[in-house]
Design goal:
Layout (H helix, E strand, L loop, with lengths): L7 H25 L2 H26 L4 H4 L8 H24 L10 H9 L4
Helix pairs in contact: 1-2, 2-4
């Protein structure tokens, strides 16, 4: 069996690409935005560490045998945790989007406006 180890150069390149791209994407909010935008961008940046940490843990470690042998749950537990994490991030992102761009994600208060607009006849 070949002894496989992580390549430090490969890890460094991936870190620079991933967090460099995230920092580039959030640079306007982090450095030039208002206090609310800076807080939101910093939260997004910090959550990325949790996400990457979980993905690294899940791919590098096996579950204990007693958990892995549970029917229907054991083999898919890591995937289910990842899915819950991603769905929670999507829900959080939707909340963020509805505050940042109210016209992009209409709220319940705006639903009557869209209903009237869609059902009205042109003059």
């Amino acid at each position: 069996m070949v002894d496989r180890r992580a390549s430090p150069i490969g890890i460094a390149i991936m870190v620079v690409i991933y967090w460099g791209a995230l920092l580039y994407w959030l640079r306007g909010d982090l450095f030039d935005g208002s206090a609310d935008e800076q807080t939101r961008a910093l939260k997004m940046f910090l959550v990325s560490f949790l996400y990457v940490g979980y993905v690294m843990w899940a791919t590098m470690r096996d579950l204990p045998d007693n958990i892995r042998e549970i029917p229907f749950i054991g083999k898919s537990l890591k995937g289910l945790i990842w899915l819950i994490f991603v769905l929670a991030l999507a829900y959080w992102g939707r909340q963020w989007l509805s505050r940042a761009w109210p016209t992009l994600v209409p709220s319940q208060a705006d639903s009557t406006h869209y209903h009237v607009w869609l059902t009205s006849t042109p003059a």
